[in-house]
Write a structure and sequence with these properties.
This protein is an alpha+beta fold and 460 residues long. It is built from 11 helices and 23 strands. It folds into 2 domains: 251 residues, Zn peptidases (Aminopeptidase); 199 residues, Alpha-Beta Plaits, CATH 3.30.70. α3 crosses α11. The chain is elongated and about 80 Å long.
Length: 460
């Protein structure tokens, strides 16, 4: 018989597996091998979603409990990193798992690890378990969207996609994914060539951290350059994902203007605002092919005028609606921009999406709604939530906080597809997710394991 293993054992194995969003096939293979090792039923679909089923330890009158986590990760690094072929270079320091040259992927690898530890332990008492491991959560949520819900029997779901151990997330925001494009043709230029780069900002999750004053590198650069009257962009590239606050950007441009005085002013100003920021301005070898001045200005004016950060709050200052200007890229034929609008109020989302479109049209840019993800709302009656609260307080003598979360969660899709679903989102203590500073507390994984172990035991 294969022995039960700890969450940290599985987490360390998962850290070795490449699993960028949309390329989770290696992770699916790992989960299938796990199920085979422990003689558990499983199924895999074309999206690399994996469902593993474990029978209850004695007769239960109710349906199975669903335990859910996503297998993909955001891929962020300060230098080139081959996420598709290499795992994470990790280390353990002062009780925290950290990464050397990239983010860690504890969102949601830590949650997957706790579920695997539960499935591996044949000493537990529990109802039937449907463990669902979804894909592409960090991008399209296509895994959850295309799951075969007819195969799922459970009406109670505990997701492990939260970020704090002593909180239960009881609602989430939806998200609209938007793209803006600026087609161009290169023209000749004889002006001087320069590069302005911004780095050193904290980055972070565009939902969880949107209210943390971390700075948006794309917005800062646009604000600095938008005032140049004769600017011609050569290239502009920054950010990593639409759901990550951009921490860096580089823009090469031509101008005949002496920008050194403005550069020194903005460097001093933003260094006060964001102490870790690095702003570098330097002359480059001449670039003779540029984006024409008119299109260059339209791009910078759009970036400067588009709203970013928290847009609407409720009476207790919680973000209801926000925007994140996440990515900008220069290709051969166009400049491509990705942004997202999160909201837990449908009317607000529609309003700010429409406003973003109007701003794009004002500057003659192409606008498209790429995707919309649903939200779920607070449930007054949730036996699963109450049981989680009771067992945590019994084990650790601490009160649980119920929290609305300003982030898109797959729970919104599950709630939409499974009528009457009782859903709760819990988590392990994670810090600075979606950034190179990400870390996860090792002992927290063990505590959450024990918490769920006790919760499952007491379920009817």
């Amino acid at each position: 018989m294969v022995r039960r293993k700890s969450p940290s054992h599985f987490f360390e194995e998962i850290l070795e597996i490449p699993r960028p969003s949309g390329k989770e096939d290696k992770m699916a293979g790992y989960l299938v091998h796990f199920a085979q090792q422990y003689n558990l039923d499983y199924e895999v679909d074309e999206y690399s979603n994996v469902i593993i089923r474990k029978p209850g330890t004695h007769p239960y009158i109710s349906e199975p409990i669903i335990l859910q986590a996503h297998t993909d990760m955001v891929c962020t690094s300060e230098e080139d990193y081959d996420f598709e072929n290499h795992g994470i270079e990790w280390f353990l320091e002062d009780g925290y798992y950290k990464a050397k040259r990239s983010n860690l992927g504890a969102d949601n690898g830590a949650g997957v690890s706790v579920i695997l530890a539960l499935l591996s332990d044949n000493t537990l008492e529990h109802p039937p378990i449907e463990a669902i491991f979804t894909t592409q959560e960090e991008t399209t949520m296509n895994g959850a969207k295309n799951l075969n819900y007819k195969h799922i029997k459970g009406k109670r779901l505990i997701s492990l996609d939260g970020t704090e151990e002593d909180k239960i997330e009881v609602s989430c925001a939806g998200m609209a994914s938007l793209t803006v494009r600026a087609p161009f043709e290169r023209v000749e230029s004889q002006k001087g060539s320069y590069q302005l780069s911004i780095s050193g900002l904290l980055g972070g999750h565009s939902g969880v951290d949107i209210d943390s004053h971390r700075g948006n590198a794309i917005k800062i650069l646009a604000h600095i350059l938008e005032g140049l009257e004769d600017i011609e962009i050569v290239s502009i590239d920054g950010g990593s994902k639409e759901n990550v606050i951009p921490s860096d950007i580089k823009c090469i441009f031509n101008t005949s203007h002496d920008f050194s005085a403005e550069y020194q002013f903005f460097k001093r100003f933003y260094s006060i605002e964001y102490p870790g920021i690095k702003i570098d301005y330097r002359r480059m070898k001449p670039r003779n092919q540029v984006i024409d001045h008119k299109t260059s200005m339209q791009i910078l004016q759009f970036l400067d005028k588009i709203e970013d950060g928290v847009l609407k709050r409720n009476d207790v200052d919680f973000p209801l609606t926000s925007s994140n200007l996440g990515v900008i890229r220069t290709t051969e034929k166009e400049v491509w921009i990705a942004l997202s609008i999160r909201s837990s109020i449908v009317g607000y989302e529609d309003f700010y999406v429409s406003r973003a479109e109007r701003i794009a049209r004002r500057y003659h840019l192409k606008f498209k709604i790429e995707d919309k993800k649903p939200f779920f709302t607070f449930q007054e009656d949730s036996p699963t939530r109450q049981l989680l609260v009771n067992t945590y307080e019994k084990l650790y003598h601490k009160n649980i906080t119920l929290e609305d979360v300003h982030a898109g969660l797959e729970g919104g899709i599950f709630a939409q597809e499974i009528k009457g679903l009782d859903i709760c989102v819990i988590g392990i203590n994670l810090f600075d997710i979606h950034s190179v500073h990400e870390k996860v507390e090792k002992d927290s994984m063990d505590r959450v394991f024990e918490w769920l172990k006790e919760t499952l035991k007491e379920m009817e």
